[in-house]
Give the backbone structure.
Amino acid sequence: MKKIFVDDTNRARTTCPKCSFEISLVTANIKDTHKQLKGICRCGEPYHFTIEFRKRHRKNVMLPGEYVIQGKEKRGDIIIRELSLSGIRFESLDPHNISKNDTLELKFNLNNPLRTEIRKSVKIVWVKNRLVGAQYLDRKLYEKDLGFYLKS
């Protein structure tokens, strides 16, 4: 299943797998859908795709790390599941007291050759059992390291 990304003009572009014709889609009517979609190229070839409205690419990872809840001084071990330049998704290894809008300090190492250490302050956006989604408070910090890592 091909994933296509929406640009700043609310358009998504893909290429026909048979004839390589570039197909441009207006996404205003399909906003916030997570369904598998299908289309038919002008050559008659059907194609299937999903549309991604995220502004930043996310990379699936499995990196061990730890967190500290600011103001509560509660800490725990985590596994980083997804990374992007603007946010992160992680899983707590144990039950936790993390709530939406909490500020956490995260610490983990990338699995690149330098084993780059990342320390990020994040604001919690959502919590679902042991899975947590967060946005970085300072997006510029480590942007170069994360940007290079996400492209590899």
Q: What stands out?
A: The two ends are 21 Å apart (CA to CA). The longest strand covers residues 117-128. The chain has a mean pLDDT of 84. The helical segments are 143-151.
